């Protein structure tokens, strides 16, 4: 469905009920969408990034994940309200065009594309790091091999993509639940090398709950890494154009957010830090692998390392999926090269995916140049660009809700609770995190890059508008 059609349908319920007609094949079923939603946020940020957070803030990192998790649920309910109003694969940039303006759609589409390209670099970097657990090989070699393999995987049908992601996510979920059960067994029965010392009191008896160097200040400074761990939860919005029965499946997927955060983040960290004292963790090392090493379960550490390797590759695979769709949406609106609109016989945006995969190869070069610092560099860039999508979702939901309450637009079948106030608070929280990023020397580099990227977008849009005035209108080019 084009943006012009949406504009014409604003006076009735058709906009909320119309099927999208973007050329994609609706090959993603309920089972696959659910697991993509559950597994989308289980990746590098949790399995690798949590090590840095634990070493910096101690047990209070658990609280940081819990508070941020509440904000993430507010964002997802805001997205759900918009998706039930109009489910489209280019959801973020489409909503930005409709509720903010053409430039907002342009900036959002290209920024979200950049986010996933950088995230792909991040996940490939993490995967290369995990490979050193078994073999002493250069990180850049592993990163190159993984990028090529995942690119090939994204040339299959969307149904097979969904099936691959289903099993990737199943492995991650099963592993975390298994780890929680093992830790629970150690705490209650006392087996393994950690059995004699494991105790829930580790959460507060080693320097206190806020055990970081600066107390609660250290906890606040971990929010940048915590928010990065949740990036990709919004991926279900990109799948909207290829989901079977989207208006039934997507709300169910979104409503799983609270329990998956409670189990996979809060629950897992409570168990790990109860079995192994937080002082033994360090940045750059997976806390899951380290915990099994401390337990004396060497085989378990190897298994967990394989699982976190799978998690990183899964996130990178999702990145290649979403970048091709976002480039096609931009091209259809005249805000990107027209050749990105072409689909393969299987309904896949092959040209956009190929271009994105080529850009991800920059991550291989980063690994070659700075193998020790690569992860920190790309995490900072990914966080600020990913949070832009959340900001746009919240602003669009606020504007949509105000219009629908006035009767100017049909009401969504999946309205976010507490109206626009919760979205406003979520926006304030995100802006607080951005301020904290400016204070943190490690994260500040991303804020330096943000105005540069904004300037590039501004210049590009200026020339695009002069060359193609249609791109500055709400009309989508067919």
TrEMBL record:
Subcellular localization: Cell membrane
Statement: the UniProt record of this protein carries the keyword Cell membrane: yes
Keywords: Amino-acid transport, Cell membrane, Membrane, Transmembrane, Transmembrane helix, Transport
Family annotation (Pfam families): AA_permease
Main location group: membrane
InterPro entries per record: AA-permease/SLC12A_dom, Amino_acid_permease_CS
Transmembrane segments: 35-54, 60-79, 99-119, 139-161, 173-195, 215-236, 257-276, 296-316, 348-368, 374-398, 418-439, 445-464
Residue span, Amino acid permease/ SLC12A domain: 33-468
Recorded superkingdom: Bacteria
Membrane topology recorded in Swiss-Prot or TrEMBL: Multi-pass membrane protein
Keyword Transmembrane on entry: yes
Annotated protein name in UniProt: Amino acid permease
